[in-house]
Amino acid sequence: MTDSFFHPVSGMDLPRFAGIPSFMRLPVLGLDDARRKDVDIGLIGVPWDSGTTNRPGPRHGPRQLRDASTMIRAENGATGVRPFELVNCADLGDVGPNPADIQDSMARITAFYSDVRAQGITPLTAGGDHLTSLPVLRALAADAPLGMVHFDSHTDLFHSYFGGTMYTHGTPFRRAVEEGLLDPKRVVQIGIRGTQYDSEDQDFAKSVGIRVIKIEEYFARGLDDVMAEAREIVGTAPTYLSYDIDFVDPTFAPGTGTPEVGGPNSFEALQVVRALEGVNFVGADLVEVSPPFDSSGGTAFLGVSIMFEMLCIMANAISAKT
Amino acid sequence: MTDSFFHPVSGMDLPRFAGIPSFMRLPVLGLDDARRKDVDIGLIGVPWDSGTTNRPGPRHGPRQLRDASTMIRAENGATGVRPFELVNCADLGDVGPNPADIQDSMARITAFYSDVRAQGITPLTAGGDHLTSLPVLRALAADAPLGMVHFDSHTDLFHSYFGGTMYTHGTPFRRAVEEGLLDPKRVVQIGIRGTQYDSEDQDFAKSVGIRVIKIEEYFARGLDDVMAEAREIVGTAPTYLSYDIDFVDPTFAPGTGTPEVGGPNSFEALQVVRALEGVNFVGADLVEVSPPFDSSGGTAFLGVSIMFEMLCIMANAISAKT
Amino acid sequence: MTDSFFHPVSGMDLPRFAGIPSFMRLPVLGLDDARRKDVDIGLIGVPWDSGTTNRPGPRHGPRQLRDASTMIRAENGATGVRPFELVNCADLGDVGPNPADIQDSMARITAFYSDVRAQGITPLTAGGDHLTSLPVLRALAADAPLGMVHFDSHTDLFHSYFGGTMYTHGTPFRRAVEEGLLDPKRVVQIGIRGTQYDSEDQDFAKSVGIRVIKIEEYFARGLDDVMAEAREIVGTAPTYLSYDIDFVDPTFAPGTGTPEVGGPNSFEALQVVRALEGVNFVGADLVEVSPPFDSSGGTAFLGVSIMFEMLCIMANAISAKT
Amino acid sequence: MTDSFFHPVSGMDLPRFAGIPSFMRLPVLGLDDARRKDVDIGLIGVPWDSGTTNRPGPRHGPRQLRDASTMIRAENGATGVRPFELVNCADLGDVGPNPADIQDSMARITAFYSDVRAQGITPLTAGGDHLTSLPVLRALAADAPLGMVHFDSHTDLFHSYFGGTMYTHGTPFRRAVEEGLLDPKRVVQIGIRGTQYDSEDQDFAKSVGIRVIKIEEYFARGLDDVMAEAREIVGTAPTYLSYDIDFVDPTFAPGTGTPEVGGPNSFEALQVVRALEGVNFVGADLVEVSPPFDSSGGTAFLGVSIMFEMLCIMANAISAKT
Amino acid sequence: MTDSFFHPVSGMDLPRFAGIPSFMRLPVLGLDDARRKDVDIGLIGVPWDSGTTNRPGPRHGPRQLRDASTMIRAENGATGVRPFELVNCADLGDVGPNPADIQDSMARITAFYSDVRAQGITPLTAGGDHLTSLPVLRALAADAPLGMVHFDSHTDLFHSYFGGTMYTHGTPFRRAVEEGLLDPKRVVQIGIRGTQYDSEDQDFAKSVGIRVIKIEEYFARGLDDVMAEAREIVGTAPTYLSYDIDFVDPTFAPGTGTPEVGGPNSFEALQVVRALEGVNFVGADLVEVSPPFDSSGGTAFLGVSIMFEMLCIMANAISAKT
Amino acid sequence: MTDSFFHPVSGMDLPRFAGIPSFMRLPVLGLDDARRKDVDIGLIGVPWDSGTTNRPGPRHGPRQLRDASTMIRAENGATGVRPFELVNCADLGDVGPNPADIQDSMARITAFYSDVRAQGITPLTAGGDHLTSLPVLRALAADAPLGMVHFDSHTDLFHSYFGGTMYTHGTPFRRAVEEGLLDPKRVVQIGIRGTQYDSEDQDFAKSVGIRVIKIEEYFARGLDDVMAEAREIVGTAPTYLSYDIDFVDPTFAPGTGTPEVGGPNSFEALQVVRALEGVNFVGADLVEVSPPFDSSGGTAFLGVSIMFEMLCIMANAISAKT
User: Fold this and answer.
1) How confident is the model at residue E186 (pLDDT cuts 50, 70, 90)?
2) By percentage, how much of chain C surpasses pLDDT 90?
3) What is the structure's pLDDT at D205?
4) CB contacts, 8 Å: C298 with chain A
5) Chains near A, with 3+ CB pairs < 8 A?
6) What span, in angstroms and rounded, lies between the C-alpha atoms of A142 and A163?
7) How many CB pairs under 8 A join A and C?
8) Based on the structure, what is the number of domains in chain A?
9) Domain range spanning residue F30?
10) Where would I find the beta strands (DSSP E) of A37-195?
11) Residue ranges in chain B modelled with pLDDT below 50
């Protein structure tokens, strides 16, 4: 049993609409807080969307995700896991970006996550647009390339936009492969769909060995079969989990900037994470939640429900090691 | 053929956006109306949400459900049933609650339904939050405990909240079992999911013999199999039907206070009711529709579509008896 | 390869939120534009809803569909088709209706489409309410009756409304059969559901040989089987494709005036069109998108995604002929 | 003191969100109700917008105005008038329009109001678009032309639209003058503003003697001075009051189809009616409330607040006569 | 200059959309935090609306007010006051209410504020509905009755609702006078308007000497004159400031449960507070902000702008004493 | 009389909801269009918000402003000016920004406007955030510094943000003064208000001679007096007009990223522009309209109403010269 300092406030004690909204009602530990040394999993916000080429908004994601997360309770109803009793979890606050300078922002993010990693904390990130994953990977893959399970409707493997712009939310994993942060043979992308400019991204994927599973294949084979292949691809070595909310059908997750119709529903949105039980994750993110396009707040609530599933499998894995 | 006084106004005669919105465009019969004696099924609103522990709003439910119900026509497209020609239906108005006094409100509701029952009318209720079911059951189960088919994402079987508060929308069926209003062996709860504080509610269910079917089991076995079991559990004795709109996935029914992602879609939302054809229902409710969280009105429209399915099976059953 | 004049502006060059929104960022060709003679498929808006008996709004459809269509890219991710490289496509603008005169509006629409047909252009229409299809068919079926694949939750085969009103969005295909514009033996209607006034429309369908596939049959048999039957019904002769957005479940397409719960999801919304590959379509429409009820814009985006699927199969067919 | 049958339900007894929403919680009297003979002022809905040339929606006005009107209490806080104790008021229901036939709808409206007039009831109308006023005037001015106080941002005096269409919401008062329903010398229009096509309407006004007070003059002279002139223009002879909600600034009344910025605020919206105390009104309307553009419901609430002010001055006048 | 620990985070350092939203980005001090002893002004949330007789929602107020308050900067642009440099301010968190028990909730609130008072902290409260003021006054006026400046469109002086219910948001100040918490001769209510059930509340006001300034008088005399009278009424003795957001016109503050049209605009909403410079306030509240009815968030932003004005005059006063 | 090619489409001919939305329904002339040489005033969109430090969105401004502008008719109702008959106006399309590169975007904007200026066209710009004005001024003030009338609630004169970032929407006019694009002695800023970090911006204004008129002064002196001073400050030399929509109170203009409560209403929003009749404007912009925060579209409609007033005074001035 973990230290009660790290337990969320219960809605049985304080109603869930009350109190300052930290992630899952966990304690908030600032950069210099001494109790950070006891944290196993740290929930971190990256309120940043400067890489967005289309409709901005994910900079508001962390705050809305925190708000919605006060609806999360202590136990996973489907699996029975009680993560906050398995490992010490905390809200580590937000990385402060520079909204008008992409390079400066990436440097700040990498520095923050390098600290987190040095403290032995496994990060669970709430973005932010998908470019967020790149500076995070620079910290987490500093020593060796990682595998990755990637849920998305886009590959985010393009070379550049607008005549040579290299850092956008459509390019992070191209850069990550080029920089040696990802081992492309251990990367699987699931849910890809929608109209495309061309297939330059998928040609690149093929050339380096990234496995792309389009939505038609996903539906035809079924979730269980696809996820079994995903587990096999990443194997037992250290792996990153990146989940773009636009993997989910935009009816279930309208609050995002580049939706593509015809995706999985909310039950599958959770099930795909549960199917990754046992994978050796060194970090995870949930990105592209865009509150200005989420008038009902349903996207944020689905987003934190997915984050809770991530947290459960990560807590189980960490707990199993100790 | 029923008395044309009890037939809804047709949209072919008066456009559906016109006219004062009664339930399904039926005549409205006040407490003292002599024609109440001819009514078989009475639609009743309970605009009340004082039992809500989280986000209020269901007090506005009956009005919005009435408004949406003007879209309902005379015939069930799937089953061909024309309920208003089988039995006399009427809108019996709203029970007037006391928004600042829970016990007073419950007394008012029980008194209203005792009258309705004394008049030989089968009530079909539009809530209100789920605490509504308790004072209704006190009237309907005054003589003997009832069975119940209960669609929901929560069991509503908790003992108490906030340090001993016994009457909230999380406790009605715990009270109903304690008060002998429900026969727990003839109660089935379908669709349970989401995060939980603990399993105190489910421990209670197990201890008294209530059958809980979680959403994972529901999806794994399929609707037909689950509903066959439900029919078997309640058998042929008098039974109550309680339908919390949060049984349905929140994308299909966002207008509710305590949503849980990963539920059934709107087609199944109707099909589960159709699968209860022939059950001996003495009353039914549709609760927890919360207009402040239903910006498009889609939840209310789904709610009345479910109520129409309830009405069809109840009309069939009553009509078969006579 | 087609003339680059007819290629959409790429989002890689000009961000998709920039620029004046024509359909799919295609060039706009006015009535007198000489380049119309080179157009193979013309996208046309009919901003008109005077036939609406319930909630108006589709007059605003074309503008919102154009706006949403700027999210469409060059290639179909599922099928690999690049329609703008197969045939010359253009935005032919809107037909100007007379909002206060139904007959005048129908005459204007028929005149516009007669011109389009005379120019050898295959029209792809964005409505407008469903009465739009009637004046369009008057132009396209001027020589011989057409077959029709019709996706909808209503048959639109009623005789009249409000005591004898013959032209509403509930009557277009009754008129079209009466006027000899459709060959009823080659008409199939898919997705019919919801409550109904009576079965006068379906009795008519039966009497003239129109095949009606209700949603329960659709779900029971599955998409592939149903669509195979649909292809067989229309055969190889000239056929019209009419797609009412309310075919789709209202959760996926809330922006419409007469929704019916319990319909297909967005993936199937696209798949049913893909399943019509090879049919000899001489025109198609997507109708009943109603922006005032589409607060998130998701209905319009789904609508143009469906239009893009239509465009792909039409482009393939035209391209195959030449 | 009036008959308590005609008193509204008090929110002290039944909460204001409860109960079926009739106008101001008054009793509803159908066409054949014998108690109509005791009614002094009848509130009537005309859910119709077929005359709308731009954005439709006012057909939904009466229902939303009824809903909002349940917030109205018994006494005017500013003037102390308690209208329901001065005269018998009732909700006379809606006129059923034919949404697809303008002439048929106008005939239905005139017939309904002719009956009302024959019963000695003074009508207070909730529209509907502004064309509604024409068929109402045909009933009320059957014997002699009326004066009119008209609040609006448009004159609605145009000859025709779209090449000769004579009946739209931009032409009712041109027709009314031509048909001898209004005495132009006793007509004043207040609040006119916004961009215009041309001055054909104002040229007509000048030619027949209608007084047009533009918003710039209104603000420059002040409300008291302007309203004194208005009272003088209409004098003591029978007069009609027509209030287009777009008289008010669209920030205060966004729910309307043809807003013009730069109008009066909500305090003045009420004050201008209070300033008409004592005028000999034989009928009044509040038109162009369009719920699809009134997401917060604020326009409807302002609309019924204006209707209550109208009711107070009309009740005072009727009461003074008896 | 105050301790920098108590300074808000600057938006020049961390963007205003980033970080966990405490009131005005101040440090959060829990019940047991030792630094509470250094606090001069404590901002407190009371997420509670069980006293609401009409449309609920203010329980969500404190969270949304905190979110909006991250837009507040260090200096008052109009007066030049920099409150955080004058006195130590902190966010003291929320009082945890019991949503299903009014008496229990009131006891919890009074206990919380008694502690705050004992610690020498001046409380600035974000409600909650207006019943909140009663348990707060029970703590602050424990020794002697207070004066009060009260902005509102309702007097909240009613005796009871629904047949004898004594504790609702329409009765707090009746109770407060009865309990000796307020000195009625030193109470002024400003902005009263709208329809009313009767004048029982105002008769009571008159009988005990409370000064009621209706909106018509307010507009006729002007803000400066009215506020001079208000300052004179409360004098120099300890006074409470209670500000119901529905004082402001509902167009400027739609997010509230019982709006009344025809109120002051947002500039005046601030000016009335500035006009109270120098009054001896021992506490203040801003109540009835209801996020479910505040779709744009503008009401919350106006609410915190008003709170900042309150903070400035309170900081000046406290600073002047020391 | 101008060439009819440059006249807007009339709503009397084509309903205003129909047709592709160009600015004020004017013809669209691409970069290479030969008819550009005949244009006097060019309306240009700059869909760009990379300088936004808080809530993004203005990149969507031009499209929504074009949509709303289809409500604008031919004649100014207040002044009688018919601008499209005085000078040739056209929609010159959008400048294509690079959303992920601020310097590249500024270079593109300056190049576009340099061309426009070389063609002798006076530009009227729809932003975009306020950084837009800087690259526009670089083109327009290439030869000599300009005067400026600046409506805003912020001075936008800050030195830098986030530790040295020089180009944000809070810094454009600091840069413009530094670069010699503005003559500070001929610059007046009107409407400044809200909380502030510090007075570094206003200290700079004072040091270089920029006149800052805060909102309190504006209201105290009145519009006429303030605007007379403004005209005097800029005199007869070439002047730029920059209008941030947040000058207006956020209730009237909620769709913006950094609102400040307590500003002018919509009538004044137009009047301040009319008061600048006769000033020698060489260009003008309307910036910071942010559709994601403008759910009703009212901000965009107010924005284009302001743009039309700008157009009228510019057309008058140009017409007077020729």
Assistant:
1) very high
2) 94
3) 98
4) 250-251, 254, 259
5) B, C, E, F
6) 30
7) 80
8) 1
9) 4-320
10) 41-45, 89-94, 122-126, 146-151, 182-192
11) none
How many CB atoms lie under 10 A from the CB of residue B119?
13
* For E131, nearest residue in chain B (alpha carbons): B100
pLDDT confidence of residue E1 = 67
Peptide bond into E128 cis (omega under 30): yes
Q: What is the mean pLDDT of residues F182-202?
A: 96
F246 labelled binding-site residue: yes
Residue C67 with chain F: CB contacts under 8 Å: 63, 67
- Does C169 belong to an annotated binding site? no
Q: Residue E164: closest CA among chain D residues belongs to which residue?
A: D12
Please give the share of chain D, as a percent, with pLDDT higher than 70.
100
**Which of B53, B98, B101 is facing E99, going by the closest CB pair?**
B53
Note the pLDDT tens digit of each residue in F139-174: 999 999 999 999 999 999 999 998 889 999 999 999
Per-residue confidence (pLDDT) for residue D215, from 0 to 100: 98
Between chains, do C270 and A293 touch, taking CB under 8 Å as contact?
Answer: no
Written as six digits, the tokens of F257 are 């990223």
Residue A246 labeled ligand binder: yes
Average pLDDT rounded to a whole number, residues D172-182 = 98
Of D54, D219, D259, the CB nearest to F267: D219
Measured between beta carbons, which residues in chain A are less than 8 angstroms from residue F162?
98-101, 104
Q: Compare all CA atoms of chain E with the CA of F255 and give the residue at the minimum distance.
A: E296
User: How close does chain E come to A100, measured CA to CA in Å?
Assistant: 11
- Specify the amino acid at residue D191: G
pLDDT at A157 over 90: yes
Strand partners, E187: E148
Stretch A53-57: mean pLDDT, rounded? 93
CB contact under 8 A, E267 and F192: no
Please, which pLDDT band fits residue F1 given cuts at 50, 70 and 90? Answer: low
Put simply, the answer to whether C19 touches F96 (Cβ < 8 Å) is: yes
- Does residue C1 surpass a pLDDT of 70? no
Nearest to E55 among D17, D265, D296 (CB): D17
CA D134 to chain centroid: 12
Among the partner residues A20, A93, A97, nearest to E15 by beta-carbon distance: A97
Residues paired with C48 in a beta bridge: none
3-state secondary structure of F130: helix
Burial of E237 (0-12, 13-18, 19+ CB in 10 A): middle
Report the residue from A13, A76, A302 with minimal CB separation from B261. A302
pLDDT on residue E285: 98
Query: Is D1 a residue whose pLDDT tops 80?
Result: no
pLDDT cut 70: percent of chain F above it: 100
How confident is the model over F15-27, as a mean pLDDT? 96
Average pLDDT over residues F298-314: 98
**Chain A residue set in contact with F, beta carbons under 8 Å:** 49-57, 59-60, 98-102, 104, 161-163, 165, 167-168, 292-293, 295
Name the nearest CA neighbour of A61 among A307, A272, A260, A240: A307
Helix axes of C298-321 and C266-274: crossing angle, nearest 10 degrees? 10
The tens digit of pLDDT for each residue in C187-205 reads: 999 999 999 999 999 999 9
Greatest CA span in chain D, whole angstroms? 56
* Main-chain dihedrals φ then ψ at residue F260, nearest 5 degrees: -135, 125
Which residues from chain F sit within 8 angstroms of residue A99, using beta carbons? 52-54, 162, 168
The Cα F117–Cα F39 span in angstroms is: 11
Q: Within its chain, how far is the Cα of D40 from the centroid?
A: 17
- The answer to whether B307 and B124 are in contact (CB under 8 A) is yes
Would you say A183 is a known binding-site residue?
A: no
Average pLDDT over residues D149-154: 98
Q: Which residues, including other chains, have CB under 8 Å from residue F227's CB and lie 6 or more apart? A: F272, F275, F276
**Residues of chain B positioned with their CB less than 8 A from the CB of C219:** 267
Q: What is the CATH number of the domain that holds D211?
A: 3.40.800.10
